[in-house]
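User: Structure with alpha-D-glucopyranose, tokens only please.
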Amino acid sequence: MAPKVTEFDRARAALAKKLDLSQRGDADLLDRFDRWGGDLIEGLQATYELTDVIGPLIDIMVDQHGKRSETLRQRDRERVLNPDWFQRPDTIGYVCYTDLFDKDLKGLANRVDYLKKLRVSYLHLLPILEPRPGESDGGYAVMNYRALRKDLGTMAELAAVAEQLHTSGISLTLDLVLNHVAMEHEWAEKAKQGDQKYRDYFYAYPDREIPDQFEQSLPEVFPDFAPGNFTWNPEMEAWVWTTFNSYQWDVNWANPAVFCEFADIIANLANHGVDCIRLDAIAFIWKRMGTICQGEPEVHAITQALRAFSKILTPSMIYKAEAIVGPAQVGAYLGEGKHAGKVSDMAYHNSLMVQIWSAIAAKDTKLLELVMARFGAMPASTAWGVYLRCHDDIGWAIDDSDAHRVGINGHDHRMFLADYYTGKFYGSEARGVDFQIEKHSGERRTSGTAAALTGIQGALERKDKAAVDLAIRRYICAYAMVFGFGGIPLLYMGDEIALFNDDDFVKDKTKRDDNRWIHRPAMPWQVAEDAAQGKKPGSPATRVRKAMENLIQARLNLPSLHAAVATKVRAGQGHGVAIFERIHPSGNVIQLYNLTETRRWVSRDEILALPDWVTDRLSGQSFALGDGLELEPYQVLWLS
Ligand code: GLC
Ligand code: GLC
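Assistant:
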């Protein structure tokens, strides 16, 4: 009996026919199909009729493969041999808007040395693809995925900057907004003109019947400025699905043509030197009646197929999931069950971020420990994106049952955090502002820079020197957790010099309704350069910069901070002290963080994984543990 010809065999044969296997690049491509083709087909079959999609996809592969430069093909080979390149402790992330960093791509090119000096090796440029004119949700309403925002540069310049970054040891991440496009995008324009092919790229309903049914279980992302999830469009004569703003039209991923369009867009970005794709709002891309339409199983099948496509075609590229979801859901984006290790390579650790802020406000670490203990093991090939804040607001994602387990009320605690970080709570020095107040519960999210939330800004405005000192310690303690946790620490632009809120955003009418702009200040280069050179040593900017450099330096020399090594989080017996433990043959590390304003005791029993004589990798000091240690307010120790 002849062996059964599988879908895999058929697809492989179709691909092989279009390649010249005497060429190294083509042979490599087919080898990679052998390695990842199965994942691709499995992901596609879970969602689409395979025959609708595999043919066009192979054509895209062959076409984009032909366009890949020899330099990038070499990068591919190197990374296939070093698949953990982004997991290593020397991966230091930096996140910025190109224009706010230094005007445009030329400005950025001139500042690469600044990034190098800071030891940055992973740069995420927030949206730079061409947005709609006017309001664009900070660029997350993309009109053209094959061009850049005009004032920032051209695609050719992007490729040149990517190459410059690569030579400087820096990888480039860009956003891929794949849940929605701007209503001015070509697909939407054609849909408005009545072209059925393109109408099928969107969700459009002639009346409220179906939208109303969906609304029963759908939450609202922007209840203030974009209530509801559907918007009437007169040209379409339909209610169009718009999860985010009314000008951001959700695309229909159930349509295989949409999959192919995005695959080609991703390949094109990869061929311009992009190393990592941030899958924006990935949770939202599949809709199912009766659910909140986030994190449906198809989301992961699609991600698996897209990633396998990239692994075959441009394997130096990785995927990062932006899934701002709870501890129980986030694991799926790094892969659970049959998707383990086959979906995104990275995901944001939103829970850790929220828990750091929560512990600082509460001066207690019980909840942090409980929540962190709920995280299962992650695939060893993946990494967390660890951050203290980003360009978005902070949503106080405290789970009711978690809160209940430590004896508090979830709603009350969320309200407390929102009050605390907007300075409404007695004794709080924070200067955040409320974002998106929910009508029924009164719950709200918070905007503000890290320096504003930790109280550096408030203390400085009050000219209270002791309070400034304490706030700086708090700030460094919080950021030390980001650098110490493992995974990729993501430093938001300007946090290396503790930038304050930018109240001027209200002067720009495309920004004033969205106060997330308060925490997106422009880079003050004089201050940044002075701090980098250690000038004005007493200023918060220089002090913070120095402390950051110290954290980064210590991190670089700790092999056990490799992302594949799991971090165990414990709360110290003294409460208020978080303990991160990393057990690895390269050397155990125990990190202690006093998240309170008072002295705390950590006993020897809590540091069992270390011998008696230890070194604090942050200060360089060695000492005997004795019975234990007393930690100063906000003191951090990385012991090995
Ligand atoms: C992501 C972005 C956010 C944007 C949203 C809609 O969550 O981080 O800034 O508003 O997607 O694209
Ligand atoms: C919601 C979304 C997240 C987005 C944010 C924007 O939290 O889940 O994707 O970043 O809104 O504020």
